[in-house]
From TrEMBL:
One of its GO terms (biological process) is urea cycle. The keyword Hydrolase applies. Pathway: Nitrogen metabolism; urea cycle; L-ornithine and urea from L-arginine: step 1/1. Belongs to the arginase family. It comes from Azospira oryzae (strain ATCC BAA-33 / DSM 13638 / PS) (Dechlorosoma suillum). Keywords: Arginine metabolism, Hydrolase, Manganese, Metal-binding. PROSITE patterns: ARGINASE_1, ARGINASE_2. Coiled coil: none annotated. This is Arginase. Its EC number is 3.5.3.1. Its cofactor is Mn(2+). GO terms for cellular component: cytosol.
């Protein structure tokens, strides 16, 4: 059975220091790089969600957006569709995975591809930026308004989570993840062992979750020379030559519940390279099947 892909825009930069990612989904909707994707009969662009202002601060605005995103993602899953969420800053991940979890009868795993750990709490953050906190929130730690999006309780169990590509973080968030037992594959480990070995090990871990798993991809996991259009670029990332084949290996996996691609910042996307990469990436994970 071929599932319908449901694109959902999360047009928020409220969680970031540079709010430019808010324009990401609208820019992609119009980008020529997305023309072929949008013509696919098995893909439909659903809604794009925008933050509501004057809710009394950033946490309230992010919580409100994530609540609506969780609902849209949950409904898509319950219709038997595969949600593909396009950000937007990475704080929106709280909505995506709370929605996936709400639609699943059993715990779900998450593969987190990112230059950062995004695992601060309000107490540990250095910047105060909410896009530095979503993974901690999904693991049950953080501002109550964010932790309870989509229902009470942690949305992920540490043993079902793995991060790949990490190269920029503060010590407190690393200690937090190590304490919980979340597996972090830094870029140094990728360089030592090669991406195929690391990706395989990370995937095996997240696939242990009985409810299936998802992929949260922050575009800054790529080297900024290949993906310049991101909110927080960090040098020395993964190349497309490395990561695309690994992602293509997920194609057709019935346990893959949803994908999100976050932190696209069109203001910085010199030559439209990042939008084109993003379109290729969706095509690699969800190739168009014959007849679909
Ligand atoms: N989703 C992101 N781009 N996160 C970047 C976070 C950077 C830094 N660790 C912070 O907490 O501010």
């Amino acid at each position: 059975m071929h599932r319908t892909l449901r694109l959902i825009g999360a047009a928020s930069g409220v969680g970031a220091q540079d709010p430019g990612c808010h324009a990401g989904p609208t820019a992609l909707h119009r980008a020529h790089a997305f023309d072929d994707l949008q013509r696919r009969p098995d893909l439909s662009w659903g809604e794009t969600l925008f933050p509501r202002q004057a809710l009394g601060g950033r946490v309230a605005e992010v919580a409100d957006l994530c609540q609506r995103l969780a609902e849209a993602v949950r409904q898509a899953r319950e219709r038997g569709e595969t949600p593909v969420v396009l950000g937007g800053d990475h704080s929106c991940a709280i909505g995506t995975w709370s929605g996936v979890r709400a639609a699943s009868p059993a715990p779900v795993g998450l593969l987190w591809l990112d230059a950062h750990l995004d695992s601060h709490t309000p107490e540990s953050t250095h910047s105060g930026a909410l896009h530095g906190m979503p993974l901690a929130c999904l693991l049950g730690q953080g501002d109550r308004r964010l932790v309870t999006v989509g229902g009470p309780g942690p949305k992920l169990l540490p043993g079902h989570v793995a991060l790949i590509g990490v190269r920029s973080y503060e010590p407190e968030e690393r200690e937090f993840l190590d304490r919980l037992g979340v597996r972090v594959f830094t870029i140094d480990e990728v360089r030592q062992r090669g991406l195929p070995a690391v990706f395989g090990e990370a995937l095996a871990r997240v696939r242990q979750a009985p409810g299936g798993y998802g992929v949260s991809l922050d575009l800054d996991v790529f080297d900024p020379r290949e993906a310049p259009g991101v909110g927080s670029p960090e040098p020395a990332g993964l190349s497309q030559t490395e990561l695309m084949p690994a992602l293509a290996g997920l194609a057709g996996d019935p346990a893959l519940l949803a994908l999100e691609v976050m932190e696209f910042n069109p203001d910085r996307d010199a030559g439209g390279r990042t939008a084109a990469l993003l379109a290729r990436l969706i095509g690699a994970v969800f190739p168009r099947r014959h007849g679909a």
